[in-house]
């Protein structure tokens, strides 16, 4: 467990993942019935971009740093940027929300936020960062156990983010297993798996595993910041979204060209298709 997301907070992958998450939450909120938010690998919840770990890599400068003062932001990015501005009221970008903080701020009063973190120190800090919000529950344990431990939920609607550190070679396989388990326990779960785009060989196997999960429908969307054959590089990242709410595909078709243009480094691009069509 050597991974620390603080080194990577606010980078291009975070912007893509978190902006998509805000749209998932907004679209789920179109229905009156509440939903639960579940996060399998929650991290700290929020990050200091001026802290030692973030400044050591400076990855956020090529991510949220490119959007912070942009004047051409799509309207669909407003929820995401509003959270950032609320966290940085003096206009200087310092604090960045992880997925738990975004979910806590954007879900409605009657909705629960169920967070899990395995690393003891990160879990302690996550509890500290989330304290005072009675809707939030922090669990300390193995993230892969979340589907069987927390699903089905009483609300009968759920958004689950599966976002492991990908330190181990089997984690793509475990993502597919977790999705299959989530769908088996509550078929209507909206589950989003974030994954890195590095090794195309591993990705081909991953796509096949995802297609065999039994999800009713599964949308794949990917953002590229380098050519796919760039060695030893995070060339982009993807989200595989089971049961995406109506309207998400259309919104992503508007957002992704903008993100590819803004966040591309040596070469920006994107793709979206259905791994499992309805």
From TrEMBL:
Keywords: Methyltransferase, RNA-binding, rRNA processing, S-adenosyl-L-methionine, Transferase. Pfam families: RsmJ (PF04378). Transmembrane segments: none annotated. Signal peptide: none annotated. InterPro entries: RlmJ, SAM-dependent_MTases_sf. The active site is at residue 163. Its EC number is 2.1.1.266. The keyword S-adenosyl-L-methionine applies. One of its GO terms (biological process) is rRNA base methylation. One of its GO terms (cellular component) is cytosol. S-adenosyl-L-methionine binds at residues 18, 41, 99, 117, 142-143, 163. GO terms for molecular function: 23S rRNA (adenine(2030)-N(6))-methyltransferase activity; RNA binding. The record marks 3 as: Interaction with substrate rRNA. Gene3D superfamilies: Vaccinia Virus protein VP39 (3.40.50.150). It catalyses: adenosine(2030) in 23S rRNA + S-adenosyl-L-methionine = N(6)-methyladenosine(2030) in 23S rRNA + S-adenosyl-L-homocysteine + H(+). The keyword Oxidoreductase does not apply. Belongs to the RlmJ family. Monomer. Specifically methylates the adenine in position 2030 of 23S rRNA. This is Ribosomal RNA large subunit methyltransferase J. It comes from Pseudomonas congelans.
